[in-house]
Specification:
It is a single chain. This protein is α+β, with helices and mostly antiparallel strands and 138 residues long. The protein folds into two domains: 41 residues, no CATH class; 84 residues, no CATH class. Helix content is 20%, strand content 28%. The protein has a four-stranded antiparallel sheet, with no helix packed on it. β2 and β3 form a beta hairpin.
């Protein structure tokens, strides 16, 4: 890592591009740094690298009226559904508390979510179907 950073700095001199300069000057040690100076550089928190994202895998329903995505529910990735209106509150349609939902899909009728999940870590995926019914306006 040090050699790559030194090579980048040598090729650009002190005029590093903003992308490189932002990270190289603050995170990655430059030439001439001692080991104790390198230890003063803060580590990236593990949750930043390996934690759950806020939201991933957005999918619009086949009729174009609903949006589904994965987000943590009690620290585990589950599937949420809401209308395409940004002010609408999402509703969780799965409630896994152990392993999370690795993949999901809209069914063609736009009222069901299909998702794949294994049981107890056996790596044998099973397909499940959860209905989604918007009961807020009824």
């Amino acid at each position: 890592m040090l050699f790559l950073c030194d090579a980048i700095q040598d090729s650009f001199g002190e005029d590093l591009p903003p992308l490189f300069g932002k990270y190289i000057n603050k995170v990655i040690p430059r030439k001439g740094k001692t080991r104790s100076q390198m230890n003063d550089i803060p580590l990236i928190p593990r949750t930043t690298l390996f934690g759950n994202p806020e939201r991933i895998s957005p999918k619009i329903s086949p009729n174009g009226k609903m949006l589904a995505y994965q987000a943590p529910l009690n620290g585990v990735l589950n599937v949420y559904v809401r209308s395409t209106d940004p002010s609408d509150q999402p509703i969780p349609v799965t409630s896994d508390a152990i392993r999370g939902i690795p993949a999901y899909f809209w069914q063609q009728d736009s009222t069901h979510i299909l998702y794949v999940q294994d049981s107890g870590g056996d790596e044998n995926g099973r397909l499940y179907q959860n209905p989604y019914r918007d009961t807020r306006n009824t």
